[in-house]
Amino acid sequence: MSGLAIEVVDLTRRFGGFTAVDNISFEVAAGEVFGFLGANGAGKTTAIKMLIGLLAPTSGKAHVAGLDVKTQMDQIRTRIGYMSQRFSLYEDLTVLENIQLYGGIYGLSDAQITERSKAMLASLGLADDFVGRLPLGWKQKLAFSVALLHEPAVVFLDEPTGGVDPLTRRQFWELIYAAAARGTTVFVTTHYMDEAEYCDRISIMVDGHIGAIGTPRELKEKWNVPTIDELFVRLARPA
Amino acid sequence: MSPTLLAFIVKELRHILRDRQTLTILLLMPLVQVVLFGYALRSDVRDVRLAIVDPSPDYATIALRDRLVAARRFKIVSVSPSMTSVEPLFRQGKADVAIAFEPDFAGHLHGNGPAKLLLAIDASDPNTATTMQAYARAVITSYEAEVGAGLNQPIRIIPDTRMRFNPTLESVNLFVPGLIALVLTLVSALMTAISLSREKERGTLEILLVSPLRPWQIIVGKVLPYLGLAFANVLTALLAAWLIFHVPFRGSVLLLLSESLLYAMVSLALGVLVASLTTSQRVAMLAALLVTMLPSSLLSGMVFPIASMPVFLQWVSAIVPARWFIVIARGIMLKGVGLDYLWRETLVLLGMTVVLMGIAVRSFKPRLE
Questions:
Q1: What is the ipTM, given to two decimal places?
Q2: How many structural domains compose chain A?
């Protein structure tokens, strides 16, 4: 289990009579960039919420960073980072104040916070200002860096590049690769199929199931499609 | 305190201190409210409708009646021989004050005994009632002095005052304790509800819930800075009431401050509850106004005495925290009593805090969906 960042076995979540996530199983290796794709309503968000402790599974098992989401969520919380599809830093606080908040919440020492925030500002090329004054692309890059502040084993990114221009998206993916190179497992959802091609492995969720899983190249060969985009459309509309 | 919680509280303080406009409004509010309420409730009373009960009219009762009318404050709306006719007038709101002379008033005035009269006042508006009483007594006293001087011997008229509808009326100062309750409710319940639902609306709450912060720490972190603000507000309201309106303070300041903090806790818990049950800032704000501000001002006994409410509303008022706090604050400020008299109300507030906080913490996380 040491090589696995995420291990999901027969994970299910029902809301009343509706089964949002139906018996899914998959594994993500440590240090991997894993693309978690699916149409809106396919059950992606529900699955992520079970992995980060915002929803309890109805049945099945899931381990994150080698820990059980049912019994060891408290330990998991300190070892994962999360960036939601909505911008999630405080706009009325400065960059440094946001860093101090999240650093403090994740139990970093003052010295660590000072050191890491300096490094972060330098690598992003940012000056300390109110977050609300930054352009959207910068905000997203900053939010990602803040999610990595406590050097989590796994970072969950829920549509991190929504509404961002292509150049910034490219820069964002450079940040993702840099994080993966440092050993952080990246679990990312996206609607941009070109981004899916950047991932080490991807899965495509369809109606609560996993419709396909593998490296982008494997999947294209197996389904005999030129792009992931086409595979996605074919799976989502099985007609 | 854990560094995790501390980091969160620092962040909350920054939010509050950075929003200067809101902060200024919140800090000035108690002052403005005390001044507005203070002056608004001190309205000058004119044309008081007076019912006279005079079983045996004589020169003395006629003279006093003339004096009352001559003072221009009063106009006589009815003269009758017995009290029975006065009751319907009060009920229909056709008389504000009744003066009943005892039989053979003049005889008593010049004989041995003091002459007695009954002053009955509609005290459904306590402040107006106090003013009307003062006017009536002033007229009676001046008549007393005048007749006494003419006779070269002191005479005595003993007015026996009855406040109707609100028999335990203390003084004009009743409104200050209610005001403290109102300000605390506003700052505590409304502001926490807004600040918490803002996190929900903007998606930052999700990030916090994924972090090692526990739900109770998020709530404590939200609540603590506002407790500080509430504390400042109580001091402002008390100082303003004391300096501008000379409202007395007979009991222990420390006890009142502690009770205020307790009441603030109840309101904060309500605010958290409102935020966890609503989905947007706007709804949270309206809901907070509806479930906290309205009952706190209308059903708490601050404006309308509980004793004069319909029985049903009296029952409803029992679940309004402000009702209990106002009893406590009035007791401490105006009567100077301590915990030995107020333990029951204090226990009610404590119980409400525990129950509401419990529900708030429990409902907090599942409601994220």
A1: 0.89
A2: 1
